[in-house]
Amino acid sequence: KNQVEQSPQSLIILEGKNCTLQCNYTVSPFSNLRWYKQDTGRGPVSLTIMTFSENTKSNGRYTATLDADTKQSSLHITASQLSDSASYICVVSAGDFGNEKLTFGTGTRLTIIP
Amino acid sequence: NAGVTQTPKFQVLKTGQSMTLQCAQDMNHEYMSWYRQDPGMGLRLIHYSVGAGITDQGEVPNGYNVSRSTTEDFPLRLLSAAPSQTSVYFCASSRTSGGNEQFFGPGTRLTVL
To answer: pLDDT (tens digit, 9 = 90+) per residue, A29-74?
Structure first.
């Protein structure tokens, strides 16, 4: 069964600090891995999408890494801002081309305090 | 370009009532899907559609119906609401099934009493 596990469940950091969120997955066959940001009361918004051959992808202060050998990904947030307070969801796409299915992690709740 | 829109934003139903959650997208995406989000769980796929006239079941389809008469619209119908269907529902669309970026709507918070 395809699974995506995220850690930590929740995290509180001071504004301006960096943080790293983790995602471990067990899916087959792997297609791509996405990180989404979900603000409270809103739908998820895509931050990055990485395929098997991509190790790192950045979107502003967000940098995602992917290690396909160990089936791990991380999302690093640099110089955090209050607006970064949100849930961050790791999603893995698996399956043959055109028939991919998504498996969602339960998310990491990040709170930035001033 | 409105993206993915959903109505209503909030809804309260009594057990046994039926209703339709509306979803529309203006990006000419072929793939549309419905998810529910419950506390402590990842988003779970209810139904999806790979194009107009084609729908299929996801992980948790029981108690829900969908139809896709146009590329733009993908309504979700609750046939006879149950308290277990209390959840937040998200509609999403993408160019194709899983390889492309999915765009999510703002969600509908449904409470069944």
So the answer is: 888 999 999 999 999 999 999 998 899 999 999 999 999 999 999 9
Beta strand pairing call for B87-94 and B108-112: antiparallel
CA nearest neighbour of B106 among B35, B12, B50: B35
Question: Do B47 and B54 form a contact (C-beta atoms < 8 A)?
Answer: no
Chain A residues bordering chain B (beta-carbon distance below 8 Å): 4, 31-32, 34, 41-46, 49, 89, 93-95, 97-107
pLDDT attached to residue B98: 60
Q: How many CA atoms lie within 13 A of A12 on its CB side?
A: 2
Sequential DSSP letters for B59-90: SS-TTEEE--SSSSB--EEESS--GGG-EEEE
Write the CA distances from A106 to A44, A54, A72, B85, integer angstroms.
12, 24, 15, 19
In this prediction, what percent of chain B has a pLDDT beyond 70? 98
Task: Kindly state the tokens that stand for A111.
Answer: 């709170």
First-residue to last-residue Cα distance in chain A: 41
ω into residue A8 within 30 of 0, thus cis? yes
What ranges in A1-114 are assigned the alpha helix state H? none
Interatomic CA distance for residues A101 and B58, integer angstroms:
9
Residues in chain B with CB shorter than 8 Å from the CB of A109 are none
Distance spanning both ends of chain B, measured CA to CA: 36
Measured distance CA(B97)–CA(B75) in Å, rounded:
18
